[in-house]
């Protein structure tokens, strides 16, 4: 599987906003976007984005893809599944992205970023309803219980992440049990509870051409 290996801070600078791809580092003065809040590259300071419909739609899709850490093929596959399901395609797309196993681990606070959560999931540190799940794209459902495996409960990276995000809470569609190192999916997330700065209608328009 292809993996993005370049500097993640370049992605934030290209989108012109913080995507919080490095967890707590993004909240400090070490954040590259704070020091160089312009597009990367030799002509980054002078680059002017063309205000075309296609350009606006493309940037919105790229922003969503980068926030959730998906490559183009993975993102397009998720959109196809959303477009084939009954309901509003844009909202269904965001719901599917939110219900990915790696995103749920991040939302519950077990990892500092989605990329860190993806690595923890791939290494088999989590279970769903008592069964091992090591697939980041696994779709959780209402009623599912996500737990840290017994052998992984003493991992420093998980404890540090929970400590650093104390008081921040979790989305209303999730329930966190810190003492048990587990969480439960209460219901499918609504658009209001997702809270990502994405205009999903622009993505639908882009892929509908």
Helix and strand topology:
Blueprint: H1 9-15, H2 32-35, H3 53-68, H4 72-84, H5 89-98, H6 101-108, H7 114-122, E1 126-128, E2 131-132, E3 145-148, H8 156-164, E4 174-177, E5 182-185, H9 191-194, H10 200-207
Antiparallel strand pairs: 1-2, 1-3, 3-5, 4-5
Largest beta sheet: what is the strand line-up?
2-1-3-5-4
Structural class: alpha+beta
The parts where pLDDT drops under 50 for at least 5 residues are none
Helix content: 40-55%
- Alpha-carbon Rg, integer: 18 Å
Count helical runs: 10
What does this structure look like?
The chain is α+β, with helices and mostly antiparallel strands and 209 residues long. 42% of the residues lie in helices and 8% in strands. Strands 2-1-3-5-4 form a five-stranded antiparallel β-sheet, covered by helices on one side.
Task: Looking at this protein, list some descriptive labels.
209 residues, 5-stranded antiparallel sheet, alpha+beta, globular, 5 strands, single chain
In short:
With 209 residues, this protein is of the alpha+beta class.
